[in-house]
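Appendix B. Chain record.
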Amino acid sequence: MGKFVCLLLSVSLLTGCFSSLPKCSSDASKEILLDLLIRDMLNASHEVLSDRDLNKYISVINVRTTDYDKKFKRYSCEAVIRFSDQLDYPIYYESVIDEESGEHMIYTNRLNIQQAFGLTHVVNGIILKVNQGKNK
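Structure tokens predicted for this chain:
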């Protein structure tokens, strides 16, 4: 009987964790979005920034929900990625929970070559600032 109660409790806890979809403005959504964007840009520069450096120079601002699809449990979102007060980049994305894994996922269009080149230039400037700060 005790095992059954523990099993029932653990199942209810797990379904509670994954039943609510993170909103567009949640910290988890913004973190995943930044990870995807930075990965695209930093592939060209071969540099690595720590989470602390990312939070210092790159942020997600002006987040808003543009649509919610109840059937597919999906938020459509738009936001601005701010790069060290040098550039504001508009971005559109979706926040969903994967039905099979229960994992929170963000979908966005990958950067095209011109966008990636322009943003990589800005990110390289940020990397230079970070490295100069470490050498002081």
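Further analysis of this model is presented in Appendix C.
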